[in-house]
Amino acid sequence: MNNRTTTGKTYHGTLTWVGIGVAAFYWVVESLIHHVFSFDGGSFIEALGAPGPHELWMRLVVVSMFIAFGIYAQFMCD
Fold first, then answer.
1. What are the residue ranges spanned by the domains of the chain?
2. Among 8, 26, 34, 62, which has the minimal tally of Cβ within 10 Å of its Cβ?
3. pTM here?
4. 5 phi and psi, to 5 degrees?
């Protein structure tokens, strides 16, 4: 396996983790925005953990794209 190193640091799989981190950050920010600007009266925890069906599929599509782009970028760098 060919891991690229710079000054002794290993960067194998880093971009995949960046994609996962950005996806998690997006999920939290989207939940916060939905909670603040929505008039459904739910709590932030409900918006974070149990969104409605429309919110859920929309978030899953965007999160999947972030993760897929991270995997693709890592694959292209190796």
1. 11-77
2. 8
3. 0.73
4. -125, 145
